[in-house]
Write a structure and sequence with these properties.
430 residues; alpha+beta; six-stranded mixed beta sheet; 11 helices; 29% strand
C-alpha cells in the first residue's frame, strides 16, 4: 500500500481519536493504553498519518505517524469516512516526539507501539518500573489526583474563533493571571469572528458559560477539559439562523457599494473576508428562501405578484437579483418568445417596472450591465425623475422598451386586482 496516497490527518482530544470532525473512537479502541497515558490538557494534537493496512472484518486500521506537528490542518475538516473504523493501531511512534505531548505516562506499557524501544525494555523491567509514572527518566511515587470543575462567564465577543475551535482568556480563582482555554467545535471557522454579535442574538445571550475541569497531581495543576454549553449549540441549524439574522441586518441597513445596485443571494449573505474554502458552514439560503423570509417579515401587499414572478415567470437558468434601500426589491429575468424582460418589483410597491430588450441587438450580459446602471440612477434620482427622463429620451433607447404595470385595487379588501395585473404582465412579456 502506497503510504503517501493514504495520508490522513487525525486529531487527539478528550481521550478520543478523531478520524473526521464528526467521527471518533475512544483511546481504549486503539493500542495506546488509556490507563497508562494522558495527553496534555488544553493542547490541540493533530498528526499526519499514513494508513498502511485496513482489516475489513475487524474494521481496523494500522497507522504510522508521519508528522507530529503539521503546519496546516485545514484538510482535516474536509475528511469523510470511506469505510467503517472501530479500532486503530499505531506502530513505531517516536518517543522524543510523543513525550512532550504527555502530562502522565507509564512508558513501559508503550513499548509495543514505540520505535526502537526494545533496547530499553530489559533495563526498565529489571529496575521494577512497571506501573509507576516516569517523567524525564525518573521514577515518581504515586500520588492521588484531585479533580474539580469551575464555571466562569465570559463575553461572547471576546471569544477568538479559529478552525474547529475557539480560544478565550478566562480568570480563575485557582490560577494567577488569565488562563488560556481552548473549546472545540468542528462547525467553527475564523470568518465567524466577524458576525459574533449575530451568534449572540441566535443564542439569546451575550455571555457564555465556560466550564473548566481542573486536575491536580504531582505535575501540578492543569486543565483536563473545557466546555461551553452555548458554544456546543453551534451547528448547521444555528448557523442558518445566524445567516438569516445577518441577511436581515444587511437588508434593513445596507452598506451598498457605490458601483453596485444588483446583488445575488450569495453576496447578501457574504461574511467579511469569508473564503469559499471555509469548512463547517451551513449551506447558503437560496433565492427562494430569502424571498420567503422577506415576505414573512414584512407582510407586503404585493406578495401575490412577487410569488407569481418568482415561481412562474423567472427564468430557471438565471439568478434572482436583489436591490437594497432606498429602493428595496427584486429584479426578475423572464424569457419571452421574442424579447427578454427584466421585471423590477419593489416591496410594498404599487407598480411593476418592466424593461424589455431585443436579444439580437443587446446581449443578456449587456442587459444586466445596463440594468445595474439604470437602477443606480433610480436609487440616486428617484423613480418619477427616471420615468420623465425616459419619456423624453425614449427615441434614443434602441433595442429597449420600458413600461410600468400598475397594481389595480392593491389596497382594496373587496376587489382582487391580481388577475388584472397578471393578464397585463403576460401581455407585456412576449
Amino acid at each position: 500500500m502506497d503510504e503517501q496516497s493514504n495520508e490522513r490527518i487525525i486529531r487527539i482530544a478528550e481521550q478520543k481519536l478523531f478520524l473526521t470532525p464528526n467521527h471518533s473512537i475512544p483511546l481504549n479502541q486503539t493500542n495506546i493504553p488509556p490507563q497508562s497515558i494522558r495527553f496534555r490538557a488544553g493542547q490541540e494534537i493533530f498528526w499526519i498519518v499514513a494508513i498502511v493496512a485496513y482489516n475489513e472484518e475487524r474494521a481496523a486500521i494500522r497507522m504510522r505517524v508521519l508528522e507530529y506537528h503539521p503546519t496546516s490542518v485545514r484538510a482535516f475538516y474536509d475528511q469523510v469516512m470511506k469505510k467503517p473504523i472501530r479500532f486503530a493501531s499505531f506502530f513505531e511512534l517516536q518517543w522524543e516526539q510523543l513525550e512532550p505531548l504527555l502530562s502522565y505516562y507509564h512508558k513501559i506499557d508503550l513499548f509495543d507501539v514505540l520505535a526502537n524501544s526494545k533496547e530499553n525494555e530489559t533495563t526498565a523491567t529489571q529496575s521494577g518500573i512497571h506501573h509507576d509514572p516516569v517523567v524525564h527518566g525518573q521514577v515518581r511515587p504515586k500520588q492521588k489526583e484531585e479533580e474539580w470543575t469551575e464555571q466562569v462567564q465570559v463575553d461572547l465577543l471576546d471569544v477568538e474563533i479559529g478552525i474547529g475551535q475557539a480560544h478565550i482568556n478566562v480568570l480563575s480563582k485557582w490560577k494567577a493571571g488569565p488562563v488560556r482555554a481552548v473549546l472545540t467545535n468542528s462547525y467553527l471557522v475564523p470568518e465567524y469572528n466577524w458576525i459574533k454579535s449575530f451568534f449572540a442574538k441566535a443564542l439569546g445571550t451575550k455571555k457564555i458559560h465556560v466550564i473548566l475541569h481542573w486536575v491536580k497531581n504531582i505535575d501540578g495543576l492543569s486543565l483536563s477539559g473545557v466546555k461551553s454549553p452555548e458554544l456546543d449549540k453551534i451547528d448547521n441549524r444555528l448557523i442558518e439562523v445566524v445567516r438569516r439574522l445577518h441577511f436581515m441586518n444587511r437588508w434593513k441597513d445596507p452598506t451598498t457599494p457605490v458601483d453596485q445596485s444588483l446583488f445575488t443571494s450569495e453576496e447578501l449573505q457574504e461574511v467579511p473576508q469569508e473564503s469559499a474554502q471555509s469548512s463547517g458552514k451551513a449551506p447558503l439560503l437560496s433565492d427562494e428562501d430569502l424571498l420567503a423570509l422577506l415576505l414573512d417579515e414584512f407582510k407586503v401587499r404585493n406578495a401575490a405578484q412577487l410569488n407569481y414572478l418568482a415561481g412562474k415567470l423567472q427564468a430557471k437558468d438565471h439568478r434572482l437579483r436583489f436591490t437594497l434601500k432606498p429602493v428595496a426589491g427584486f429584479l426578475f429575468f423572464i424569457r419571452g418568445s421574442q424579447m427578454t424582460h427584466h421585471c423590477w418589483e419593489l416591496l410594498d410597491s404599487h407598480a411593476t417596472y418592466v424593461w424589455s430588450f431585443n436579444p439580437s441587438e443587446v446581449t443578456i450580459q449587456e442587459q444586466f450591465r445596463l440594468m445595474e446602471g439604470i437602477i443606480g440612477i433610480i436609487r440616486e434620482q428617484g423613480r418619477q425623475q427616471y420615468k420623465q427622463h425616459w419619456r423624453l429620451q425614449s427615441n434614443l433607447n434602441r433595442g429597449m422598451v420600458f413600461r410600468t404595470i400598475e397594481h389595480p385595487h392593491v389596497s382594496s379588501h373587496l376587489k382582487d386586482g391580481f388577475p388584472i395585473w397578471r393578464q397585463k404582465i403576460e401581455e407585456a412579456i412576449v
